Amino acid sequence: MQLELYFQLLNPLVFAMFAIGFLCVHTIRPNMAARTIAASYAMGTLAFILDIAFQSSQAIPVRVLVGALYAITAALLSAGLCLHFRQRAPWRLLAAMVLVHVVIYASLYVQGFLWWRSFAANVGCGTIFLVGLMSFPRRGLTLPEKMLFGVHAFSCFQCFTRPVMVAALTAGPLTAENHNEDLFIVTLHLAVGAFAVLTGMLLTVILVREVLEDLQSHSQTDELTGVSNRRGFDSRLTAWLSEEEHLEVGIILADLDRFKRINDTYGHNAGDDVLIAFGKVLQTYTGPGRVVARLGGEEFVLALSNVPMSEVKGIAETLRNTMAAKTFNFAGEDVSVTASFGVAQLDRKENPRNALARADDALYLAKRQGRNRTRCQADLAVHRLTKAKDTMKSSASHQKAKAKQKTSKTA
After folding, report:
1. How far apart are CA 411 and CA 409, in angstroms?
2. Per residue, what are the HEC states of 344-411?
């Protein structure tokens, strides 16, 4: 008898562990779905404990209470699934279903219809489970979510078929005694517990995976502007280059002009507003094969895969004009903030740092030439050539002047 009691306590123990686990997931990353599923397993723990404690009791209030707790467990699980997949739960519908279930179960218990009572208990919970099953989307499920769908669908199926199987395969008429002692019925009880544990394991995998993905996303996102940070930018760029060997990427490096003056004059909150606005301007060109990142301070980068260089420079010009047209109101004063842009192209199999360095050189050429303008790597070549010509002219003029001076002295 003692061994049987220990065996029966396995279900509430496992349910309690899952409840604590889901609560921990919610603590790490506040999640209404995780909290609701934790409540479901906690309610299941309480139902199992009361069921074991009063299994020999036929007192109607106790048995109805246990039946109600099992129904609430099913309702909370369905609500958790709805919150996970649909971001909302039909609380009123589930509450009404639990109420109807309890009323029917209690009335059958009073009348002493054991099989019909068992039928109502199983079919009622199965119907409540169907609400959660209907929340699964038809497409886009991950492998664990597909497995969870299969397990939950089977749980619904066994709720509807279990009373029929009990009536057909139980030796002799169904009584309170053989309902607890018949090997087939005990096996069904264990199957229900096993599928509840499997459901908990799959939900744990799904929710923990979401937490890890969320943490990774936060580690690669700039908190102020919502765009990627340097780590996120490098990660995306590396992924692109590894997926497509001959990929060409346009790099637009941008830096706000005289940003320190904004902070010094109007305060850091004003500076933050400008950074956020600039990030939103750059994000108008995000999409598949594109990424915006804040590299640090007031410097941002936009990378565009498989976009012609002429179009990349045009995008940079559009962004520059958009930012220049914006007006900020700081301390009752309308303020315009401009930005300078440097454009370069990441050639095939080139180290991304080299392309960023060229974009940086083009950016600072724009700064030296007056700010609020766009310069590309071709402009760098023209500038260097012009500078070299000017140097040569200056050197030639200097040599000519020296020669003339020398001739005049000789004369």
Report:
1. 5
2. EEECCCCCHHHHHHHHHHHHHHHHHCCCCCEEEHHHHHHHHHHHHHHHHHHHHHHHHHHHHHHHHHHC
Identify the bridge partners of residue 305 per DSSP, sorted by sequence position.
249
Per-residue b/e over 75-105, b at no fewer than 16 CB within 10 Å? bbbbbbbbbbbeeebbeeebeebbeebbebb
- CB contact at 8 A, 337 and 262: yes
| Tokens (6 digits) for 302 | 């936009």
The CA radius of gyration of the chain, in Å to the nearest whole number, is 35
Instruction: Give the integer Cα–Cα distance in Å for 24 and 30.
Output: 9
312-315: which pairs have CB atoms within 8 A and are 24 or more residues apart? 312/250, 312/251, 312/252, 312/343, 312/345, 313/343, 313/374, 313/376, 315/250, 315/252, 315/285
b vs e for 272-283, b when ≥16 Cβ sit within 10 Å of the residue's Cβ? ebbbeebbebbe
pTM: 0.64
pLDDT values of the chain reduced to their tens digit, one per residue, 411 residues: 454 555 567 788 889 999 999 999 998 888 899 999 999 999 999 998 888 887 777 777 888 898 899 999 999 999 999 999 999 999 999 999 999 999 998 888 777 666 677 778 888 889 999 999 999 998 889 999 999 999 999 888 888 887 776 656 555 455 555 444 444 445 555 666 778 889 999 999 999 988 887 777 677 888 899 899 998 898 888 888 777 766 788 999 999 999 999 999 999 999 999 999 999 999 998 888 889 999 989 999 999 988 888 899 999 999 999 999 999 999 889 999 999 999 998 877 778 888 899 999 999 999 999 999 999 888 876 666 656 555 556 655 556 656 566 565 555
- Cα dihedral 163, 167, 172, 173 in deg (nearest 10): 70
Q: Which two tokens stand for residue 180?
A: 């607890």
Q: 242: helix, coil or strand?
A: helix
CA 11 to the chain's CA centroid:
32
CB 126 within 8 Å of CB 55: no
The string over 40-49, giving b where at least 16 C-beta atoms fall within 10 Å of a residue's C-beta and e elsewhere, is: bbbbbbbbbb
Residue 256 is inside which H or E element, if any? Answer: strand 249-256
